[in-house]
Write a structure and sequence with these properties.
The chain has 440 residues and is mostly helical. Helices cover 78% and strands 0% of the residues.
Length: 440
């Protein structure tokens, strides 16, 4: 009997139970997609109720991104320390609480606080679902599972945005957060019953009763168990101390770490400009809040389409050059978005954001793939969490920067869009210097 559960999972065709767990990870990423953008859907109503300017609104829109960055770094580590499953359940509780408490907000400051707390849960969730998807998938099914997990984000924003547009017809922006809280709570029992702790985590940490717990997880996944624990892999255990951020900042890896972290952060500035500001921009040109929310839906339809098709480009041309091309196309699309104005129809706005979403989210998929190939196995999770966390914190400056340019700078939509597009251009320049390795 094989004594390594990871090898069993890698080599055995995926069972229905494994696919159910992966589908739930896709759905959780979709939930994250809606939760992150819920404040953007509600932005026109928030600004109208409290009469706040664009710069102040930009701060509110940025708070969950700050929380996500902090959550990715801090709670992503919790997934390595306490387990994937407990971390996901805890993050769901935090997310649900933050979303519900947002409905009680009486001023922008309190709303920003609850959005920050919601972001903490989202950030931790993202780190955990990446690990679960990879660790519960076979070698043959992993590429498909990871690709579907990544495009779950724009799919969730698309479906959630459609629902938000209908809910906003009541005229109350708080119903968007109420819906998000209820949807989040629904996932708690689903994760509890259908997603076991990953055998890879249990094997790495080796808690008391590790063999029995691994076999219980394998049985839940409808896979054969093991009769003994394999020898400790010193590389995986990092000498018993676990990988740390210092490992990815050592000579030989610090260049990769900086390129991916700074590049992802710069692209996120461009990416989140459209996702956070397009409903408010469109509403300012005279469209009703539900119509403005529908524009954001089309941005995410474009994102899901671009992310899905990008997998075929990577299969044929690799990761690096398709990502660079999409970064440049995304920058161009954002600049063209800035040409919209009073005469632009709703269809025109939808087409513009579809194009931006297509290219910018395809580049996001490229970055996630680059994380897997840029970091060696023993520091892959640490490197990925650091890059995503730091990138999300940097991305928090996107809505703030745009709001400041609009309000304090008094700049036109085209000028602001041109400035915001520069993030993806600089990210493309950094990607030129990236050396990728085959994932092991």
């Amino acid at each position: 009997m094989n004594t390594d559960p990871r090898e069993i999972i890698r080599s055995t065709p995926m069972s229905a139970a494994q696919w159910i767990a992966v589908v739930l990870m896709i759905a959780l990423n979709a939930l994250d997609g809606f939760d992150v953008l819920s404040s953007a859907f509600a932005a026109p109503g928030i600004a109208k109720e409290w009469g706040i300017a664009r710069d102040a609104l930009g701060v509110v829109l940025a708070m969950e991104l700050v929380g996500m960055g902090v959550g990715s770094i801090l709670l992503g580590g919790a997934a390595d320390r306490f387990g994937r499953r407990p971390t996901m359940l805890g993050c769901l509780v935090v997310m649900a609480g933050g979303m519900w408490l947002a409905t009680t907000s009486q001023n922008p400051q309190i709303l920003g606080l609850w959005r920050f707390i919601t972001g903490l849960g989202i950030g931790g969730m993202l780190a955990a679902i990446n690990a679960v998807t990879a660790e519960l998938s076979s070698s043959k099914g992993r590429s498909l599972a990871m690709s579907l997990m990544v495009i779950g984000y724009p799919l969730g924003a698309t479906i959630g945005g459609t629902i938000a547009a209908m809910l906003l017809k009541t005229g109350n922006w708080r119903v968007v957060f109420e819906f998000g809280a209820i949807a989040t709570v629904v996932f708690i029992p689903l994760i509890w019953f259908f997603v076991p702790e990953t055998p890879a985590y249990l094997l790495a940490r080796r808690p008391e009763g590790a063999l029995a717990r691994i076999n219980a997880s394998m049985a839940k996944l409808r896979l054969p168990g093991i009769d003994a624990l394999p020898p400790v892999d010193q590389r995986d255990s990092a000498g018993g101390r676990g990988a740390s951020v210092l490992d990815i900042l050592k000579p030989g890896l610090i260049g990769t770490t900086m390129i991916l972290t700074v590049g992802y952060s710069l692209h996120a500035i461009t990416f989140y400009y459209i996702l956070k500001w397009s409903p408010k921009i469109v509403a300012d040109f005279g469209f009703a809040a539900p119509q403005a929310a529908s524009v954001l839906v089309w941005a995410n339809i474009g994102g899901a389409t671009g992310g899905g098709l990008f997998g075929f480009l990577m299969h044929r041309f690799g990761i690096k050059w398709p990502t660079i091309v999409m970064l440049l196309l995304g920058a161009a699309a954002v600049a063209v978005f800035g040409l919209g104005g009073q005469e632009t129809s709703l269809v025109g706005w939808r087409f513009a954001v579809f194009c931006t979403g297509f290219a910018t989210n395809a580049a996001i998929v490229g970055f996630y793939s680059a994380f897997a190939h840029g970091f060696p196995a023993h520091v892959r999770a640490t490197g990925t969490g650091f890059a995503i966390g730091a990138g999300r914190i940097g991305a928090a400056g996107s809505p703030i920067l745009a709001g400041t340019l609009f309000t304090a700078g008094g700049l036109s939509l085209f000028t602001v869009s041109l400035i915001m597009a520069c993030g993806s251009v600089m990210a493309a320049a950094l990607m030129l210097m990236l050396a990728l390795r085959e994932a092991d």
